[in-house]
Specification:
This protein is α+β, with helices and mostly antiparallel strands. The chain is built from 14 helices and 23 strands. The strands form nine sheets. A four-stranded mixed sheet has the order 17-20-21-22, sandwiched between helices. A three-stranded antiparallel sheet has the order 9-11-10. A three-stranded mixed sheet has the order 12-13-14. A hairpin with a 2-residue loop joins strand 15 and strand 16. The longest helix has 17 residues.
């Protein structure tokens, strides 16, 4: 209960009032009572100042300043600062100012105390960078509130950001990986106001897309130019790392490892359009089909739509894929067999047992004679499990009466006559044996299309 005593005017006035430091100070006005009120003990050096505050000895406010109104509220020429002091009008301390002297203030005023510490506007990477593998364009950074000067200073040598391409920045100090390099090309080629991740204005294609898909035959190197499709008639300046390809046939796009890209069939066609090496074209197209990314017929239709079947190397590769060839080694074996007097085999035919169970799919198979050619590359059989799987597959074929000739790609390339001699011997023996093989080839149709037909548009 507060101590209410009558004042000079007869009204009750409060007794002790708390001071600025939370302790009660004596009422300076006299009043009736049993005797003089005792004041609390205090440090002699801590004396109250003119405004009632206790200041250390030797530390006084300069000037008496205006007095408060009788009810304790600041007068018209007086304002209260956030720390509770009254300052005359026109005399306010700047934000963050610390008063010198033996009694430093404990911290910033409540008005300027920020609470949880956070980065100022423009210092935190924009939300787009978290969606774009830590990449952002200058347009996205400025739209997020990052000043142009900050972008320039942070992307200088030794800074926390890196400028990968004109107007494209990597918001990290480490080197970019394959996906970030590919996406930076898309960000560079995409329209400024469009979302680059939709693939509506720019899409990765060619060898870079095939490399992201895991096609080992695709000759993609980090320093080589990246092919990016853009909508025609839009034009874009090429750089040492980006090759824009305007097109009026805009394809359907997909996202490969976070990068907007064309479908594998279109990426393979765009790669073949800019590659002069016939063996490279054959290996890449065969690798795309062998990996299951597209069907040979779909690839043939895309090559026709791109008007690439007029090129002999592309037309030959398309013919091999339609015939069942699935690798560059098989393509060379097909060339060797075509130049010989041996009958034409089925390529990658699926063999089944009489009860319908799948048996194997040899590289080349002569169904009438029951002879198979297996091209076993050391690249795919260097592990123990892979080698054992190859041996088990050969045992299954021989258990069902299929005679197998095994060769490596280097044997077909360097000593083709020896491979042909082994095949000729087995084909001759198989024609006279009394028990034919107990296998059937299903789900395979031999397609022999002349190059003239394949080259038509």
């Amino acid at each position: 209960m507060p101590d209410l005593r009558p004042g000079p005017d007869g009204r009750s006035a409060p007794g002790p009032r708390p001071g600025p430091d939370g302790r009660c100070e004596p009422d300076p006005r006299p009043g009736p009572g049993p005797g003089p009120r005792s004041e609390p003990q205090s440090n002699p050096a801590d004396r109250p100042g003119p405004d009632g505050r206790r200041e250390p000895d030797g530390h006084r406010e300069l000037g008496p300043g205006p007095r408060s109104s009788p009810d304790g509220r600041p007068g018209p020429d007086e304002r209260r600062e956030p720390d509770g002091r009254r300052e005359p009008d026109g005399h306010r301390e700047p934000e963050g100012w610390r008063e010198p002297g033996p009694g430093p203030r404990s911290g910033p005023s409540p008005r300027s105390r920020p609470g949880p510490r956070c980065e100022p506007q423009g210092q935190r990477p924009p939300r787009a960078a978290r969606r774009q593998l830590n990449l952002a364009t200058r347009h996205q950074l400025t739209a997020a509130g990052v000043p142009s000067g900050t972008i320039t200073s942070r992307s200088r040598p030794g800074g926390p950001w890196q400028r990968l391409l004109p107007r494209v920045y990597l918001l990290q100090t480490g080197p970019p990986d394959q996906r970030q390099r590919a996406l930076s090309a898309v960000l560079y080629a995409a329209e400024l106001t469009a979302d680059p991740l939709t693939g509506d204005t720019a899409a990765l294609t060619g060898a870079a897309t095939l490399a992201l898909l895991g096609i080992r035959e695709a000759p993609y190197a980090p320093g080589s130019p990246v092919d990016v499709l853009i909508r025609s008639p839009r034009r874009l300046a090429a750089t040492a790392h980006v090759r824009p390809l305007p097109t009026s046939r805009w394809p359907r796009t997909i996202t490969v490892s976070g990068v907007p890209s064309t479908r594998p069939v279109r990426a393979a066609a765009d790669f073949a359009a800019r590659t002069e090496d016939p063996d490279r074209v054959r290996s890449v197209l065969a690798g795309v089909v062998q990996a299951g990314w597209c069907h040979p017929r779909d690839l043939h239709a895309e090559l026709r739509a791109s008007r690439l079947l007029t090129r002999p190397a592309v037309a030959a590769a398309a013919a091999e894929l339609l015939a069942g060839v699935r690798s560059i080694a098989e393509a060379r074996a097909r060339d060797t067999l075509t130049a010989s007097d041996l009958p034409t085999p089925l390529w990658n035919a699926r063999l089944h047992t009489p009860d319908g169970a799948f048996l194997a799919s040899p590289d080349a198979y002569w169904p009438d004679e029951g002879v198979a050619l297996e091209i076993d590359s050391a690249e795919y059989h260097y592990t123990r499990d892979s080698w054992h799987a190859t041996l088990r597959r050969r045992l299954r074929l021989e258990a069902h009466g299929v005679l197998v000739v095994s060769a490596t790609p280097s044997m077909i390339r360097d000593t083709p006559t020896e491979v042909l001699a082994a095949l000729r011997t087995l084909l001759t023996l198989a024609s006279t044996r009394p028990t034919p093989p107990t296998t059937t080839a299903r789900g395979h149709q031999q397609l022999l299309l002349p190059l003239q037909l394949l080259g038509g548009n």
